[in-house]
Structure formats: C-alpha cells, structure tokens
Amino acid sequence: MKRISLFALILSSAWALSSCGDGHSTTTKDSTGTEVTDSKAVADSTNKETKPVDKESADFSVKAADIGFTEVAMGKLAQDKASQQRVKDFGNLLITDHTKAGDELKAIADRKGITLPTAFSPEHQSAMEKLNDKKGLDWDKAFIDHMIDGHKSAIDDFDKASKNLEDADIKAFATNTLPTLKAHLDSAEAIKDYLKNVKTHK
C-alpha cells in the first residue's frame, strides 16, 4: 500500500497541461499490465502535428521535461527510501533544482505553444519501480548509480542542445541548465565514493 501511495504522490506532482494525440499510439502498459497513457508520446505526437517550433527544439523540450519530472520523482523517492542523510539531502536538491528548471521550461513552452508531457515516461517509471524494490544501503547505492548514469546522459543531451538548437529561447534554457546538471553529477559521484566506506562514517 505504501508503494502505491508513494507513486500516486509522485504522479500528482505533474504540471497541469492539456494535450491531444494525432492518431498514433500513445498508450503503454505498466508493470501490472494495466494500459496507461504515455504522456511523453502524446506531447511528441501533438508537437509533430501543430509544429509550434522546429522539430529538434520541440523534441528536446519534451525530453527535457521528461528528465525533469523523473529527477523530481527520484528526489521524492530518496526522501522516502534513502538510509543515508547525504542521499536524502541530494534528493532534496534534485527536487528544488529540477522543479525550478521545469517551471522555466514550462514558461517557455507556454509562450511558444509547445505541448510538454504531464508526467514522466513509462520507461522512467519502470526504472523507479526497480529501485523501489531495494532497501537500505543497497537502495542508496543503486539510486546514486542511476543518478550518475542519468545525469551523464542528460548532460550530453543538454550540451548538444546548447550548441545546435534553432530556437534561441530553448537553446538558452539548455545552456543555462547545464551547470546545474554538472553540479548534480559531481555531487552524485562524491556520494558514491562516500557510500563505499559508509560504515566508517556512522
């Protein structure tokens, strides 16, 4: 029951945005086999139909929003599941920084008519569910490993966007967000080193 209520809380943190499909499949099945709407796919489909900005800028905006939702959700999981205070503190940092970045992206999207996802993608939800099966120090280590991999991937995406996007506002958002992502990666790598010797720090 706790697991169900936790994911309900995470999902309720999504921004309230309206979206519609264009006939493409925008549903998937969760880990229980229940069919659910893939909000990221809906956003991609809508932007493809309405073309509010160039395709690369729209695709990046949707991906960035998905990353942001996931990081906020992961931060909330850390608040609930982490056994080490440094991991909990890192989770709080994720919530604060990615909420701020998400609000900035949403403001840009609203001005330009870009449809963003209203929740993280099923792919990221699946990763969260796998983490949710772990406990204690095992959870902390798996979470930090996931954060390191995720931030490396996000930094690559944001770096490319900061150099190549056509839309000036979205390009600037990518550029301005990069330092935060790099700082998060540095923090996660430091925490990983800490967790290797966590018994000596109790």
Automatic annotation (TrEMBL):
<feature type="signal peptide">
    <location>
        <begin position="1"/>
        <end position="18"/>
    </location>
</feature>
<feature type="compositionally biased region" description="Polar residues">
    <location>
        <begin position="24"/>
        <end position="36"/>
    </location>
</feature>
<feature type="domain" description="DUF4142">
    <location>
        <begin position="57"/>
        <end position="191"/>
    </location>
</feature>
<keyword id="KW-0732">Signal</keyword>
<dbReference type="InterPro" id="IPR012347">
    <property type="entry name" value="Ferritin-like"/>
</dbReference>
<dbReference type="InterPro" id="IPR025419">
    <property type="entry name" value="DUF4142"/>
</dbReference>
<dbReference type="Pfam" id="PF13628">
    <property type="entry name" value="DUF4142"/>
</dbReference>
<protein>
    <submittedName>
        <fullName>Putative membrane protein</fullName>
    </submittedName>
</protein>
<feature type="region of interest" description="Disordered">
    <location>
        <begin position="19"/>
        <end position="54"/>
    </location>
</feature>
